[in-house]
Amino acid sequence: MLVEDVRTVSRIEVRRTNGYHVVRAIDREPPAVPRETRLQAQQIVSSAETVGADIPPPNTATYAVRPIPAGLSSDRAAVVGATPNASLRTALAANASAFTVRQQDDTIVFERHESWWSPDRVLVVVTPADSKAQYSVVVDLPTTTAESLVRLDRGDR
Predict the structure, then answer these.
(1) Confidence at residue 157, expressed as pLDDT on a 0 to 100 scale
(2) pTM assigned to the model
(3) Whole-angstrom Cα distance, residue 148 to residue 136?
(4) Cβ-Cβ contacts under 8 Å for 59 (sequence gap 6 or more)
(5) What is the 3-state secondary structure (H, E, C) of 55-101?
(6) Which architecture does CATH list for 30-91+115-153?
């Protein structure tokens, strides 16, 4: 099989070269979260009014801020964020989006044109330096609220 899971692909090119078909798949890469957005998300998550006093401030924990697929619920995103080796890119259903098809000379291109990443929500994974807990929080940036929170006990590490 050429592409195991098309949910992780943004573009597929099939080109005829010297009598052979050459297939190239381009992965869907999440956009970088802007610095201002990361800081805002950290502030929302570490605010006692938002999620409680359990989550440590950024100076005593690692905060990883990631974009969330637009079609993924906040509850599911928080669970995926707390699950080791899970990927937000593969959390959507297989038919979650469609490709448009066009032909250019000897190349057929399958490409996504829908908005993939949510402009308003991000996932914040908090790993305290001195705790066995890890937190996965989905933040709604315009309302400055935590929509979903998952606490994962990391056990003895």
Answers:
(1) 47
(2) 0.69
(3) 8
(4) none
(5) CCCHHHEEEEEEEEECCCCHHHHHHHHHCCCCCHHHCCCCCCCCCEE
(6) Roll (3.10)
Question: What is the tens place of the pLDDT at every residue in 10-37?
Answer: 788 889 888 888 888 887 767 788 899 9
37 Cβ neighbours under 8 A, 6+ residues apart = 65, 122, 141
For 30-87, write each residue's pLDDT tens digit. 778 889 999 999 888 887 565 666 777 778 888 889 888 887 888 888 888 777 665 6
The helix (H) or strand (E) run that includes residue 110 is strand 107-111
Instruction: Write a three-state SS string for 25-67.
Output: EEECCCCCCCHHHHHHHHHHHHCHHHHCCCCCCHHHEEEEEEE
Distance between CA atoms of 71 and 21, rounded to whole angstroms?
Answer: 33
- Residues whose CB falls within 8 Å of the CB of residue 41, separated by 6 or more in sequence, listed in order: 33, 63, 65, 122, 124, 139, 141
Tokens of 63: 């905060």
Q: Are 22 and 108 in contact (CB under 8 A)?
A: no
The DSSP code for 129 is T
